[in-house]
Design a protein that fits this description.
about 40% helix; about 350 residues; 14 helices; globular
Length: about 350
């Protein structure tokens, strides 16, 4: 029997419906803070990490399909969704630690990580910090592989952002934003493609506590010049780590050229471009997204990490250079990114 997506025989022995109760939020208290998450299904662990200002709800329509063959865990990152929003460390390294600790409380030793936008940066950081607990890596419009980012996010990183976000929720302002979004869509701009989703993220910041957490998270990764953290200098460490990059070719938040750069920097990675899709390709074409993730996990073996191999990569790898790589225009661009990264966080 072939499934409706044409992906070949269904593994009926492992298929089962996902009950509504499984998609409801669950909670664990870790280090004194409540962490919300959704968990469903059975099989190898698959962790879905959302982007900035978002929550696990962004994956809700995909979870039932993915949970047919996986144990799916979709957390609300600290400061997001229904998780607590303390005055805390919202760096990508802290988020990676939080993912590790939540998985540990759930009895999950290793998993395939799927990260969108900021969540992609968190997934890469998790892979860097805890390679022995990472089976595969899927990056979706991920941050952390280039400096460029949407100018709106650079603006919100500036002083006074609290007032700006508060003003956007005023009734009159909301109407003007809606008109601007419609105009951008009529003009068929890339930002117009993503604008409705981005406005929804602002709507998800109903109070000062939520806005403070959003701004703290944003300033940990973005300033007025663009993204302030990078994984390009450590991408060579993904050798032997099954990696897939999924990107919309009209992504207005993290340009698609970042996907091509990351693909070149990550040995053996797989690249899939969603045509006419923006920053949320898993919303634009969820069926293709699920099919790609299922095929990727089914056709690749989990990473076989060893301390010896990790040490060899570190010893032979470059420190701020791309020694041994061909002298191509793209590699020269990577070199430029690495030089710019010297001022940024190295965590």
């Amino acid at each position: 029997m072939v499934d409706v997506l044409g992906r070949g025989p269904l593994r009926s022995a492992r298929l089962r419906p996902v009950g509504d109760g499984e998609l409801e939020l669950k909670y664990r208290v870790v280090h004194g803070y409540r962490r919300a998450f959704r968990m469903a299904g059975d099989g190898p662990a698959l962790v879905l990490i959302h982007g900035i200002g978002d929550s696990s709800a962004t994956w809700a329509e995909l979870i039932p399909d993915l949970a047919r063959t996986h144990t799916v865990i979709a957390p609300d990152l600290l400061g997001h969704g229904a998780s607590d929003k303390p005055r805390a460390d919202y760096s990508v390294a802290a988020y990676a630690n939080g993912i590790r600790d939540l998985l540990t409380t759930l009895g999950i030793e290793s998993a395939t990580l799927v990260g969108h936008s900021l969540g992609g940066g968190v997934a890469m950081q998790f892979t860097y910090q805890f390679p022995e607990r990472t089976e595969r890596l899927v990056l979706v419009g991920a941050g952390g592989v280039g400096r460029e980012v949407n100018p709106v996010l650079r603006l919100v990183s500036l002083p006074g952002a609290h007032l700006l976000l508060s003003a956007l929720r005023l009734p009159g302002m909301r109407l003007q934003v809606g008109l601007a979004v419609r105009l951008l869509r009529l003009l068929d701009t890339d930002l117009g493609l993503d604008a409705p989703e981005l406005v929804t993220l602002v709507d998800a910041l109903p109070d000062e506590t939520s806005r403070n957490a959003f701004i703290r998270t944003l300033r940990a990764v973005v300033d007025w010049r663009g993204q302030v953290v990078t994984m390009l200098d450590r991408c060579y460490l993904t050798e032997g780590m099954p990696t897939m990059l999924l990107w919309g070719d009209r992504d207005s938040v993290v340009p698609v050229r970042h996907a091509y750069g990351a693909h070149e920097a990550m040995p053996g990675s797989r690249l899939e471009i969603f045509e006419q899709a923006g920053h949320f390709p898993f919303h634009s074409d969820p069926a293709r997204f699920v099919a790609l993730v299922e095929d990727f996990t089914a056709s690749t073996a989990p990473a076989d990490w060893s301390r010896e191999h990790w040490c060899e990569l570190l010893m032979e790898g470059r420190a701020g250079t791309s020694a041994g790589r061909p002298d191509t225009a793209r590699n020269r661009q990577v070199e430029c990114e690495l030089r710019e990264a010297s001022e940024r966080s190295a965590t």
